Amino acid sequence: MPEIPVDTTAPVLVTGATGYVAGWLVRDLLDAGVTVHAAIRNPDDPAKTAPLQAMADAAPGTIRFFRADLLQDGAYAEAMKGCRIVFHTASPFSTSVKDPQRELVDPAVKGTRNVLEEASRTPSVQRVVLTSSCAAIYADATDCARASGGKLSEDDWNTTASLDYQPYSYSKTEAERTAWDIAEAQSQWRLVTVNPSLVLGPASHGTPTSESFSIIKRMGDGSFRSGVPRLGIGVVDARDVAQAHIAAGFLPDVQGRYIVSAHDTDLLTVAQALHATYGDRYPIPSKPLPKWLVWLVGPFRGLSRRFVANNVDVPWHIDNSKGKRELGLTYRPLDVTVREMFAQMIEAGTFPET
């Protein structure tokens, strides 16, 4: 990826700074010499702040911690003061919730509204980079075939997710639509959205609780021992997503939405990439589960038959050319991403060796 001219004369705000993608973003900002205002729920918890502080201690940049609650109006005022760029990464990622409105939609939408409305009250802010998702672009892999040229693009929006079907995708869609409504009602700052597909790869520190790690854990702990469905997805490395944020924040001419996705793939291919290196030590699947079987048992495993019909054995295709062209993005190979992620999880004691 080409060198990005990073402005170090003003601090930047990173919301949800202890998150998976945010960790790599903070590291890259600190390495570039930026002063990072890290907004987190509990800055008094050394378990949360120590890894980020250690990054700052080893880098030319500096970090300051601020207490902020996504759902509290005005909570980001102090953290945002003097910042020219706001990276809003804070948002829940879970596919298993009891109350989608309270656990997913409210934090995503209300949090986005609180952060962006604060940006409009903060004269120094010139750009807001929102971590959205490909989930705001599509609900099911079958949407690809209906897209122009058979590939999803930044022009597409998810129109079929709801509180009852794909609520996580619904929360990301509602949050991004809210962001664009707020952005278009003002002229002080520019909104840029980063829309990654499934984010994999090692964490910058610790072992995050992201759903991404839950997926890979199930591949290595025997949960998929009998096989894994060919579930059509896109995959991108967390480190590449962080670099996309840097480009979206500092390149002068970027605007609009940016799909950030390296590989049109499926869950089976991800598993096979792991199996090639670790299959002799861990029960990583290398064979597909037939769609009829996934359709039959899916409801007992949290997968609706509608979801199975629309995503298993359905190819996933997306146009990532805008990000490559305007953000200068290059991507790591899939096998590098998943092997380095799995190796880190082994070191953390995630899997007992068999």
Describe the structure.
The protein is an alpha/beta fold and 354 residues long. The protein has one domain (12-347): NAD(P)-binding Rossmann-like Domain (Rossmann fold). It has 13 helices and ten strands. The protein has helices spanning 20-31, 46-57, 77-80, 100-121, 142-146, 167-184, 211-220, 238-250, 267-278, 291-297, 305-311, 321-326, 334-347; strands at 12-15, 35-40, 62-67, 85-88, 127-131, 190-196, 198-200, 232-237, 256-260, 263-266. The strands form two sheets. A seven-stranded parallel β-sheet has the order 3-2-1-4-5-6-9, with helices on both faces. Strands 7-8-10 form a three-stranded mixed β-sheet. Helix 7 links the parallel strand 7 (198-200) and strand 8 (232-237). Helix 1 packs across helix 8 (238-250) and helix 9 (267-278) crosses helix 13. The longest helix has 22 residues, at 100-121. The protein starts with 11 loop residues before the first strand and ends in a 7-residue tail after the last helix. The model has no long low-confidence stretch (mean pLDDT 93). Pfam families: Epimerase. InterPro entries: Epimerase_deHydtase (IPR001509), NAD(P)-bd_dom_sf (IPR036291), NAD(P)_dehydrat-like (IPR050425). This is Diaminohydroxyphosphoribosylaminopyrimidine deaminase. Residues 12-248 form the NAD-dependent epimerase/dehydratase domain. It comes from Roseovarius indicus.
